[in-house]
Design a protein that fits this description.
Alpha-D-Glucose-1,6-Bisphosphate, Chain A, domain 3, Phosphomannomutase, 6-stranded antiparallel beta sheet, 3 domains, 14 helices, EC 5.4.2.8
């Protein structure tokens, strides 16, 4: 009996190839997927990692062995796979390990219409059946149909944003040798954009830098190139191109919170009074701006499963996270960094000022960024921090996701990692000295243990 406990995570499947994840295992997971969700057909896409085509083919073999058909969309970004599951109304499997190093691969599974599958919504059952071995299917094997949906995906995204009024823009895009190199040329086709490509060659060994723009060192090449060519904006995508990071014309990063606020304002202009989701680590400016524009901000825990659940529950038009995941009701509540990027291009191109000026109103506070501290006892350390702050004047405390402490001039959140003995700290203040004072006090408590 297989043991898949090391590779089946809370929301996806991920592991080292071939030690943890190989074709036989993936074939069994494909068969189990069909049995558990009762699929008649499954959309399968894959990224540019060397192991992805063979793993995707093995999964398809497991699906068809159970009598279900496969729609093979080939090379795909994760949000392109989500588009396919929405357009075709079929469940899907995306082979990617996102921003993980080259030796990793994985599977993101969803139901029809990009509805997420996690431990509580089918993944535990899929794991259990795959571990036991899926019984042979007595009926006829399913078929495999190859379909190229890239142009349909690009056209659909462009239909959701009015790009007709934008001025010519010079745009540097760093694809990090990931799937942005596959999708960006088609999505940007016909726009008044002078595209300056960086690392568009599909290469799952990531020869230039990790395809993880959340790490500042992976933005350096983009920042340099934007200044060097005098670009209006720079965009960086992660490996499977579902997250997008933005830098301004000076090469300075624009926070995902500012992008969340900018896109929220644009969506509220289309649908006044709509609900917007934000996680509890986004800037305090986000709910402030949503309220100022007549919208209804709803705060949620960190993580795409919580965001998507709240999107569905509230009928929200848009949701944003500090990690540069952006969710759209009109995209089946799924995340697409590409659609967020088109919104930013439209907002920038509809006015004459530079991006730094455009986003200035959305960046009202100073943030620390996420700081990880290794601790022996997560809960004891959180309790020590809570004790130090809870009784102060003007302070409120909540525990929606870790510990959040708020004051009129600052706030911080301290969350335990689910996989490592780490606490993740995010601090925001009215100015840099306020933020740094709170940050340093919390870190001193954590250091004392």
């Amino acid at each position: 009996m297989r043991d898949l406990s090391q590779i089946v995570k809370a929301y996806d499947i991920r592991g080292v190839v071939p030690d943890q994840l190989d074709e036989d295992t993936v074939r069994e997971i494909g068969a189990a997927f069909v049995r558990v969700i009762g699929a008649r057909a499954v959309v399968v896409g894959h990224d540019m990692r060397p192991s992805s085509p063979a793993l995707a083919a093995a999964f398809a073999d497991g699906v068809t062995a159970q009598g279900a058909d496969v729609v093979d969309i080939g090379l795909s970004s994760t949000d392109q796979l989500y588009f396919a599951t929405g357009k075709l109304d079929l469940p899907g499997a995306m082979f990617t390990a996102s921003h993980n190093p080259a030796q990793y691969n994985g599977i993101k599974l969803c139901r029809a219409g990009a509805a997420p599958i996690g431990q509580d919504s089918g993944l535990a059952e899929i794991r259990e059946l795959a571990e036991q071995g899926v019984p042979a299917y007595a009926g006829e094997r399913g078929s495999v149909e190859k379909r190229d949906l890239l142009r349909d995906y690009a056209a659909y995204l462009r239909s959701l944003v009015d790009l007709s009024k934008i001025r010519p823009l010079k745009v540097v895009v760093d694809a990090g040798n990931g799937m942005g190199g596959h999708t960006v040329p088609t999505v940007f086709e016909g726009l008044p954009v002078a595209l300056v490509p960086l690392y568009f060659e599909l290469d799952g060994t990531f020869p230039n830098h990790e395809a993880n723009p959340l790490k500042p060192e992976n933005l350096v090449d983009l920042q340099r190139k934007v200044v060097e060519v005098g670009a209006d904006i720079g965009l960086a995508f992660d490996g499977d191109a579902d997250r997008c990071f933005v830098v301004d014309e000076k090469g300075d990063p624009v926070s995902p919170s500012a992008i969340t606020a900018l896109v929220a304002v644009r969506e509220l202009a289309k649908e006044p009074g709509a609900t917007i989701i934000h996680n509890l680590i986004t800037s305090r400016a986000v709910p402030e701006i949503i309220r100022e524009r007549g919208g209804n901000p709803v705060r949620t825990r960190v993580g795409h499963s919580f965001i998507k659940a709240e999107m569905a529950r509230t009928g929200a038009i848009f949701g944003g996270e500090h990690s540069a995941h952006y969710y759209f009701r009109d995209f089946w509540n799924a995340d697409t960094g590409m659609l967020a990027a088109l919104h930013v291009l439209a907002a920038l191109g509809e006015q004459d000022g530079p991006l730094s000026q455009l986003v200035h109103e959305y960046e009202r506070y100073v943030a620390s960024g996420e700081i990880n501290s290794e601790v022996e006892d997560q809960q004891a350390s959180i309790a020590a921090v809570r004790a130090a702050f809870a009784d102060r004047d003007g302070v409120t405390v909540d525990e929606l996701d870790g510990l959040t402490v708020e004051h009129a001039d600052w706030w911080f959140n301290l969350r335990p990692s689910n996989t490592e003995p780490l606490l993740r700290l995010n601090v925001e203040g009215k100015d840099r000295s306020t933020m740094e004072a709170v940050r340093d006090e919390v870190l001193a408590i954590l250091k004392r243990g």
